[in-house]
């Protein structure tokens, strides 16, 4: 990692400060992430919708939720480079998809999918490439201080999902007042009407994930960076590099003046 290129002030922060910083960083990197994230989410939604049209609605909703680690891997791929000033374009992201897709698929398949600290732990798999015993030891060291906060990020994310989804429903019913009554009526009518409403629910959930998931991943990633700063003294290392650079520049200035 090239610490001198990091776009945030590198210092030790509290866990809550780190998560808040992650949200602000994602706001800055959102234009870079938008198109690749939109492509991946659209493909996922189209597959889920086709499954719903075939009558597998519960599977389609489950699918969008289950493959969240794949979404997270793409977001982390962009975020882990953008934080150090490397802005990858959309073709570059999908050309190198083997680097991030493997982690997302493994996390989806195995028990890691149910980890409440997924946004924090994925960096160890994807960025450090650790597995097995080394991964467990690394996570033990990282979790000693911030483990509960990484779980809190997931709990908060779940509550925000409910809040955003309910807000979208409320806006629809407010803009179209007759929709609330027609919703109850149509659910009692033909299967086609029921399917239309169920797909609307699927779309609302997909939009909710699209809005919220990048900020959830960013919060966990900044917790990870902050913990490594605490363990490895990145802020001190960067200060020494800057000091050495200033000394070198001042020496060069003295020699040129002489």
Structural commentary:
With 258 residues, this protein is an all-alpha fold. It has one domain. It has ten helices and no strands. Helix 1 packs across helix 3. It is globular, with a radius of gyration of 22 Å. The two termini are 37 Å apart.
Sum up the overall morphology in one term.
Answer: globular
Low-pLDDT residue spans: none
Taken in chain order, the helices and strands follow as: HHHHHHHHHH
Q: How confident is the prediction overall: mean pLDDT?
A: 81
Question: What attributes does this structure have?
Answer:
10 helices; 258 residues; mainly alpha
Give a brief rundown of this model:
This protein has 258 residues and is mostly helical. It has helices at 15-53, 57-66, 68-82, 90-95, 97-109, 118-126, 132-175, 178-186, 191-232, 234-257.
Secondary structure elements and their pairing?
Layout: H1 15-53, H2 57-66, H3 68-82, H4 90-95, H5 97-109, H6 118-126, H7 132-175, H8 178-186, H9 191-232, H10 234-257
Helix pairs in contact: 1-2, 1-3, 1-9, 2-9, 3-5, 3-6, 3-9, 6-7, 6-9, 7-9
């Amino acid at each position: 990692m090239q610490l001198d290129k990091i776009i945030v002030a590198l210092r030790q922060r509290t866990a809550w400060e780190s998560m808040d910083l992650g949200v602000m960083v994602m706001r800055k990197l959102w234009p870079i992430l938008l198109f690749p994230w939109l492509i991946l989410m659209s493909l996922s939604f189209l597959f889920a919708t086709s499954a719903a049209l075939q009558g597998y609605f519960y599977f389609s909703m489950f699918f969008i939720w289950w493959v969240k680690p794949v979404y997270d891997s793409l977001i982390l791929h962009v975020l882990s480079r953008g934080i150090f000033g490397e802005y990858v374009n959309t073709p570059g992201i999908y050309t190198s998809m083997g680097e991030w897709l493997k982690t997302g698929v493994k996390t989806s398949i195995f028990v890691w999918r149910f980890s409440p600290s997924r946004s924090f732990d994925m960096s160890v798999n994807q960025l450090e490439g650790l597995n097995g015993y080394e991964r467990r030891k690394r996570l033990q060291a990282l979790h000693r201080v911030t483990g509960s906060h990484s779980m809190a990020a997931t709990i908060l994310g779940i509550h925000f999902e409910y809040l955003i989804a309910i807000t979208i429903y409320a806006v629809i019913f407010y803009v179209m007042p007759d929709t609330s009554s027609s919703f109850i009526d149509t659910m009692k009518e033909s299967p086609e009407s029921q399917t239309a409403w169920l797909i609307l629910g699927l779309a609302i959930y997909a939009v909710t994930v699209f809005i919220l998931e990048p900020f959830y991943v960013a919060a966990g990633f900044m917790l990870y960076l902050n913990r490594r700063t605490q363990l490895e003294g990145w802020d001190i290392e960067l200060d020494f590099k800057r000091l050495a650079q200033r000394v070198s520049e001042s020496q060069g200035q003295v020699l040129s003046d002489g």
